[in-house]
Amino acid sequence: MRELERLAAERAREAVKYDKLGMKEDALTNYKEAIKLLLKLMKFVDDPVMKKVYEEKVKQYKERLEALLEKSVESSTSSSKSRERESYLIVDPPPIKWEDIIGLEEAKKAIRESIVYPSLRPEFFPLGWPRGILFFGPPGCGKTMLAAAAANEIDAVFMQVDASMIMSKWLGESEKNIAAIFEDARRYEREGRPVIILIDEVDSLTAYRENEVGGEARARNQLLKEMDGLQDKGRIPRIYVIAATNKPWILDDPFIRRFQKRIYIPLPDYEARLNMFKHYTKRLDLEDDVDFRELARMTEGYSGADIYNISMEAQLRVVSEFFEKGGRDRPRKIGMRDFYEIIKKTNPSIETDSLKKILEWARKFSSA
Question: Could you give the percent of the chain with pLDDT greater than 90?
Answer without folding.
Answer: 33
